[in-house]
């Protein structure tokens, strides 16, 4: 089945749509598509290509048209309405004394609905707030509660690595991240070192976890006896990226030598490293979703 890849936000998830047979699409091209709720302005993530039917969620919605200048003007008008809408919503939240944090808002492409995103520790009864907002905007109102990770995705920011947060710029959808991943990769279990701006475990822990998990199984235990090309010694450290092991060797005169050897050049006793658990102390539990 021929599909076209569409995304609604930078770094967002890519969705399949049905392309028009008489139109040519290129990556980055702006288009208007039909969704289950309305028409939306979007960007082409990849041009038409064939994919297995099993990968397509039916019914496949169509691309309505390649975006026109009028469509772009509509998007611009919607963006200009946002600051005023945020200000009004914040005033109404204070008026109703609701324990919620307004994060963002967006108008649908056709301007018939505005969605307000907020964060809160628990459930919030915002029925009166919705009525109040509807009387001001005279369009459909939707309030959508989001979690701490989604809040960071919406607001964005600079991560500890110095780059834009993955969730805001390059992560289509969140993947499960665990304390075990940090342990396997030999990272410090200091909460400040393995948490992102959201205060949860960094998403990037999952990126190379498959590689680290495979190499971890081949590594010797620290302190185990190892036979190297230069004699027997004790394993004192390891480098999973280089796949090397540092061994302490005692010479005949009693002096000690520390040398690095490729993993495949040593034979060790005492078994391979045991798979780490996913247990976390009180501070680390606060990093979990």
TrEMBL record:
PSP1 C-terminal domain: residues covered: 61-146
GO cellular component term, pick one: cytoplasm
Superkingdom, natural source: Bacteria
Record InterPro entries: PSP1-like, PSP1_C
TM annotation in the entry: none
Record-linked PANTHER family: PROTEIN PSP1
Protein name per the record: Stage 0 sporulation protein
Organism for this UniProt entry: Candidatus Borkfalkia ceftriaxoniphila
């Amino acid at each position: 089945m021929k599909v076209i890849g569409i995304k609604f936000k930078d770094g967002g998830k890519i969705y399949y749509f049905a392309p028009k047979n008489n139109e040519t699409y290129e990556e980055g091209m702006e288009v208007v598509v039909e969704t289950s709720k309305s028409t939306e302005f979007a960007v082409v993530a990849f041009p038409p290509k064939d994919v297995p039917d099993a990968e397509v969620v039916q019914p496949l919605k169509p691309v309505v048209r390649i975006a026109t200048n009028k469509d772009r003007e509509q998007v611009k008008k919607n963006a200009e309405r946002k600051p005023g809408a945020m200000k009004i919503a914040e005033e109404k939240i204070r008026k109703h004394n609701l324990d919620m944090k307004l994060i963002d808002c967006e108008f649908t492409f056709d301007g018939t609905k505005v969605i307000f995103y907020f964060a809160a520790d628990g459930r919030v009864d915002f029925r009166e707030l919705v009525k109040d907002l509807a009387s001001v905007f005279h369009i459909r109102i939707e309030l959508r509660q989001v979690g701490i990770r989604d809040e960071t995705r919406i607001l964005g920011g600079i991560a500890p690595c110095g780059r834009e947060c993955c969730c805001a710029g390059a992560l289509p959808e969140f993947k499960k991240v665990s304390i075990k991943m940090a342990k396997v990769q030999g990272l410090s279990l200091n909460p400040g070192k393995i948490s992102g701006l959201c205060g949860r475990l960094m998403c990037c822990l999952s990126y190379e976890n498959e590689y680290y998990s495979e190499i971890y199984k081949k590594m010797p235990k620290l302190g185990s006896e190892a036979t190297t090309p230069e004699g027997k010694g004790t394993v004192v450290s390891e480098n999973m990226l280089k796949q090397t092991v540092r061994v302490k060797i005692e010479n005949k005169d009693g002096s000690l030598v520390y040398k690095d050897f490729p993993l495949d050049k040593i034979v060790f006793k005492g078994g391979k490293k045991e798979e780490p658990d996913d247990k976390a102390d009180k501070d680390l539990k606060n990093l979990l979703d």
